[in-house]
Amino acid sequence: MTLLNLLAMASFAFVTSVTPGPNNLMLLASGANFGFRRTLPHMLGISLGMALLLTCVLGGLGELFSRFPLLQLLLRIAGIGYLLWLSWKILQTPPRSLQQDTDDARPFAWWQAVLFQFVNPKAWIMAITAVSSFTLAGEAYWASGMLLVLVFVTINLPAISVWAGFGTLMQQFLSTAARQIHFNRVMAVLTALTIVLIVQR
Fold first, then answer.
1. Less Cβ crowding at N or C end of the chain, within 10 Å?
2. How many structural domains is the chain composed of?
3. What predicted TM-score, i.e. pTM, was given to this entire model?
4. Residue 192 pLDDT level (bands cut at 50, 70, 90)
């Protein structure tokens, strides 16, 4: 693999990781509601989930969607349902002053973020496009594929952390319970609106 190919791979990983999508909107909301440190497991789970999803696509899982369109429909339905549930969870997150140890007042666990990648349509598009675009044919397939996973994880984590960091900075503005409630309403609506991207595919 040439340096030019490696740079193209890194650029693709950065652009697709840092642009808006369900993961980054949730990280923005989590950073604003729980802070950067408590959002770290969520970020790590996203990167680990992407690595696992890429590996599965390398192993041929992505090919199943080409052969069996019904699986695409089922994934789309599951993604829509999960995004609606996430929107509801964000909407129900109480202001920081009222947060207690409840499910509605806890950030995503790392394993929840890992599993979410498998119903996240944007993650599937990223994984399938990356594997089809940047892997080499023949004996170099798995070597180039593992390099892709390594590059993606290396780029993905700092790229998505920007969103959690920005959310954390917003805590100064979200200094009142009323502002926090309005912010969570906006984030819930934006997360739900990502469903439009799924329906239009």
1. C
2. 1
3. 0.85
4. confident
